[in-house]
Design a protein that fits this description.
Helices cover about 30% and strands about 30% of the residues. It has about 100 residues and is an alpha+beta fold. The longest helix is centred in the C-terminal third of the chain and has 17 residues. It is globular and about 40 Å long. The two termini are about 15 Å apart.
């Protein structure tokens, strides 16, 4: 199993949920308001007067064979609208209860 952490501009929410559903990834946790800034490009997402936009994050544990397909779809989304900001990170899951 793998864990995918997806951080994204709130505008991506419905598309990401739809992607997870199409890939039959039922379980996830959603963090509605996350503040942050990209490491190389993009505007900060601080929810402040100067930087009003916000990020969100979703973490999902999925089967290994689904990871590459999900990352490909997310990468294509990001390339369409790079200024919004979308990143995905993958970790191994050693144990779960």
């Amino acid at each position: 199993m793998k864990s995918i952490l997806i951080t994204f501009d709130q505008a991506y929410y419905e598309r990401i949920i739809s992607t997870l559903e199409k890939m039959n990834c039922r379980g996830f946790s959603y963090l509605e308001q996350v503040q942050g800034r990209g490491s190389k490009t993009g505007d900060p997402h601080y929810g402040s007067h100067a930087w009003p936009s916000m990020c969100s994050a979703i973490i999902s544990v999925v089967e290994d064979d689904k990871v590459d397909s999900i990352l490909k779809i997310l990468h294509e989304m990001d390339l369409e609208t790079e200024q919004l900001g979308l990143r995905a990170f993958v970790w191994n899951i050693e144990q779960a209860i």
